[in-house]
Amino acid sequence: MSSELTFRGHETQQVNDEYSPKPNKPWLSEIRPIRYMLREQRLVFVLIGIVIATLFFTLAPSSSSTSSSSSSFPTVRYEPHPISYFEHESKPTPYQQRSAVVHSFGKVPLGLKRKGLRIVVTGGAGFVGSHLVDRLIERGDSVIVVDNFFTGRKENVMHHFRNPRFELIRHDVVEPLLLEVDQIYHLACPASPVHYKFNPTNVVGTLNMLGLAKRIGARFLLTSTSEVYGDPLQHPQKETYWGNVNPIGVRSCYDEGKRTAETLTMDYHRGAEVEVRIARIFNTYGPRMCLDDGRVVSNFVAQALRKEPLTVYGDGKQTRSFQYVSDLVEGLMRLMEGEHVGPFNLGNPGEFTMLELAKVVQETIDPEAKIEYRPNTEDDPHKRKPDITKAKEQLGWEPKVDLHTGLPLMVSDFRQRIFGDHKEGGTVA
Ligand SMILES: NC(=O)c1ccc[n+]([C@@H]2O[C@H](COP(=O)([O-])OP(=O)(O)OC[C@H]3O[C@@H](n4cnc5c(N)ncnc54)[C@H](O)[C@@H]3O)[C@@H](O)[C@H]2O)c1
C-alpha cells in the first residue's frame, strides 16, 4: 500500500500572508558599499595596502639588470641603454608593428617590470651563445636555444634546464624551422679553424633564419666576424673597410661564408623590411671555450695547463686583440636593442703579438712553459685590431675587461674541465 501523507491544515488557514515588498529605496543600494568600507576600519587597511604596494614597486630593482650572472664574470656594470625602436623612422617595419602590439617598449610606468621577450639563440649551446643565454634569462626573457651540438655542449646550458623560460632544440639550421619569437640571435656556425671546411651553415643556415625572421616579423642579429677583413691592408680596421680576403684559400669557407651571410642579411633588410643587426666580432675568449678547437687563446691555455709547449706559428709577431666574453655579450645585446643596423666592430682594441700573449699565459699559469715555433698557416692575417669608434658613439659600448683580468677566469674554467678539480686559477678584484 502506498502511503499518502496529506496535509489538511491549509483548508482551514486564512490566506492573508500575501508577499508585499518593502518600499523601494534606490539610494540605499548605492551607499551600501560606502557603508561597508567605512565599517571596521576597512578603509584604513586599504590605504595602508596602497602605500605598501607603491613603496614596493618604486624601490624594487628593475628587471633589466645588466649585471653578469656567471661567477666567472668580473663585476662590470654598464649604464642601461635606452630601448627605443621607434625613433628616427617614419614607416614602422613589421617588427615594430608586431612589437607595438605584443610589447610596449616605449614608456614602462615607474615600478612596472619590462615584459620579457621570446628570443631564439641559434648556436646557444656554444661558447658565446651560452653566455648570451645566461644574460637573456637573467633579464627575464624566454629563450629557445637551437643547436646541433657540432661544437656546442649541453653542459654549457644545463643549469637552465629546470627553468620554464628556457627551451633547447637539437636542430641543424641548414634545415628550415618555424618558431614564434620576437628576436633571433643567429650565432650558429662552426667558428673554429679546425671546422671551417665543407660547411654550409653560414650561407644556408643564415638564409633559413632570415626567412624565419621575415615570416614572423622578428628582429635578426648576425654574428659576423673580423675575418671578413681578411689579411687587412688598413689598420686598425674600420667598418667601412671592405677587406682583403682570398676567395679560394683554406680559410675561405669561413671568411667568405660570413661575408655572404652579411650580404644576405642586408638584402633581407633592404628588400623584405626585416629588421637586422650585424656584429663583426673580433677574437673573444673566456670560460666554456672549446678546449681543443685550434683558437690561439684556448690552445695556449690548454697547453700550459697540460705542461706542453705553447705552439707559436710563424715568428709570433702577428697581432690580435682579445676580448673577454662578457664584454662581447653586452655589445651584442646593446646592438640588438638599439636602433642601428651596423655593421659594428665588437672587440677589444688592446693589441698583442702572439709572443706577448704567450708571455701573459706563462705569467698566469706556468712561467716555465716552453714555446715551440711551427711554420705559419696559410692566409693567417698579419694584423688585427678593431676600430671601435662607431660602437662607442652609437651603442655607448666599449670593452671593460683587460687580458690580465679575464685570462685567470678562463684558466680556472679550463683547469676544472681538464683536471676536474676546483682550484681557482686566479682571482679578480
Ligand atoms: N669566439 C670568437 O672569437 C668569435 C670571433 C668571431 C666571430 N664569432 C662568431 O660568434 C658565433 C659564436 O661563436 P663561438 O665562439 O661561440 O663558437 P662555438 O663553436 O662555441 O659556438 C657555435 C655553436 O653553433 C652550433 N652550430 C654549428 N653549426 C650549427 C648548425 N648547422 N645548426 C645548429 N647549430 C650549429 C655549435 O654546435 C655551437 O654550439 C659564431 O657565429 C662565430 O662565427 C666568434
What does this structure look like?
The chain is an alpha/beta fold. The protein has a domain of 253 residues: 3-Layer(aba) Sandwich (Rossmann fold), CATH 3.40.50. The chain is built from eleven helices and 13 strands. The strands form four sheets. The protein has a seven-stranded parallel beta sheet, sandwiched between helices. A two-stranded parallel sheet has the order 7-10. It has a two-stranded parallel ribbon with strand order 8-13. α5 links the parallel β4 and β5. α4 packs across α8. It is elongated and about 100 Å long. The N terminus and C terminus are likely disordered. Catalyzes the NAD-dependent decarboxylation of UDP-glucuronic acid to UDP-xylose. Necessary for the biosynthesis of the core tetrasaccharide in glycosaminoglycan biosynthesis. Pathway: Nucleotide-sugar biosynthesis; UDP-alpha-D-xylose biosynthesis; UDP-alpha-D-xylose from UDP-alpha-D-glucuronate: step 1/1. Its EC number is 4.1.1.35. Its main location: Golgi. Pfam families: GDP_Man_Dehyd (PF16363).
The shape, in one word, is: elongated
- Radius of gyration, in Å, reads 31 Å
Which CATH first-tier class of one domain would you pick? Alpha Beta
**Number of DSSP strand runs:** 13
- What string, H for helix and E for strand, traces the elements in order? HHHEHEEEHEHEEHEEEHEEHEHH
CATH fold topology of one domain: Rossmann fold
The unique ligands bound to this protein are: nicotinamide-adenine-dinucleotide
The named CATH superfamily of one domain: NAD(P)-binding Rossmann-like Domain
Number of helices: 11
* Poorly predicted tracts of residues: 1-18, 61-73, 75-89, 423-429
| DSSP helix fraction | 25-40%
**Averaged pLDDT:** 82
Sheet/helix structural class: alpha/beta
End-to-end distance, in Å?
A: 99 Å
Which strands sit side by side, in order, in the main sheet?
A: 3-2-1-4-5-6-11
Strand content: 5-15%
Main beta-sheet strand count, sense and barrel state: 7 strands, parallel
CATH architecture of one domain: 3-Layer(aba) Sandwich
